[in-house]
Amino acid sequence: MKLSEAKDKFIRSRKLMYCSGKTVKGYQDSLSLFIKAIGDIEAEDLNIRHINDYNEMLVDRRLSQATVGSYLRQIKAFVNYMEDYGIIPEGSVARRIRLPRQPKRKINLFTPEEVELIFASVKEESDWLVARDKLMLAFMYDSGLRQGELPKIMMKDLDFERNIMLVHGKGNKDRHVPFGEITLALLKDYLEKRPYDKEFLLIGRRGEPITNDSVKKFIFRLSNRTQLEGLSSHRLRHNFATNWCIEGYEKDGYVDNIKLAAIMGHEDLSTTQRYMHEAQSIVATTHFRSHLDRIGGDPGHFLHQA
Question: Where are the alpha helices (DSSP H) in the chain?
Answer without folding.
Answer: 3-16, 21-38, 48-60, 65-84, 112-120, 127-143, 181-193, 212-226, 233-252, 257-264, 269-286, 291-296, 300-303
